[in-house]
Specification:
- The radius of gyration is 20 Å and the shape is elongated.
- α1 packs antiparallel against α2.
- A four-stranded antiparallel β-sheet has the order 2-1-3-4, covered by helices on one side.
- It is of the alpha+beta class.
- The protein contains three helices and four strands; from the N terminus they run ααβαβββ.
- It has one domain.
Length: 183
């Protein structure tokens, strides 16, 4: 009986750890998917409002409640060329690009709305976080052809036990057409 227990116990513990590890990882995977979808919907509806990126970050903050603190490494809102476009590689690596994308981190979720508003009157319009792809530059007139807005999120999940590696990275993106708005 003791020999059988010595053989089975490590295998049983491995299965239990695997359930916990992959359960937590799956929770983070679903959390990232939920964050991206909520942010893309908010960005689409916000259109060219001066606080569009700020509203998107608030949607991310609400949707990321199930994720561990600071789980989101990078958040990119970008101008997509179509519904199947990819996030520009420079933006994906964390570098904002004029006319292409705005890049944020999990610490951006703590900022107030005075850090946004690229062409309004924020405290410092030259350093506003949304200045690279200003919400005011987003096309929201149905007659002129609506812009596509994309949201990309990357998060790393650190395994607790290390039996299955150190970490796994989850990435997701969603692209929606900006909702038409009346001027």
């Amino acid at each position: 009986m003791l020999v059988e227990s010595a053989i089975i116990t490590p295998i049983l513990l491995l299965f239990i750890f695997a359930i916990f590890e992959f359960g937590f990882a799956f929770r983070n995977y679903l959390g990232v998917s939920n964050v991206v979808r909520d942010a893309a919907r908010e960005a689409s509806v916000a259109g060219n409002n001066g606080d569009a990126d700020y509203r998107m970050l608030r949607a991310i903050e609400r949707a990321a409640a199930a994720l561990p603190d600071n789980a989101l490494e990078i958040i990119v809102i970008f101008e997509a060329t179509g519904p199947n476009a990819n996030v520009p590689s420079g933006c994906k690596s964390g570098t904002a690009s004029v006319g292409v994308c705005n890049v944020y981190t999990s610490s951006s979720l703590l900022l107030d709305d005075t850090q946004f508003g690229c062409q309004t009157t924020p405290i410092d319009p030259i350093n506003s976080l949304d200045r690279f792809w200003c919400p005011y530059d987003r096309e929201v007139s149905a007659g002129a052809g609506l812009d596509y807005v994309g949201v990309y999120v990357r998060s790393t999940h650190d395994y607790v036990t290390g039996f299955f590696g150190n970490s796994v990275t989850f990435e997701d993106q969603m692209i929606l057409k900006v909702e038409p708005q009346t001027q």
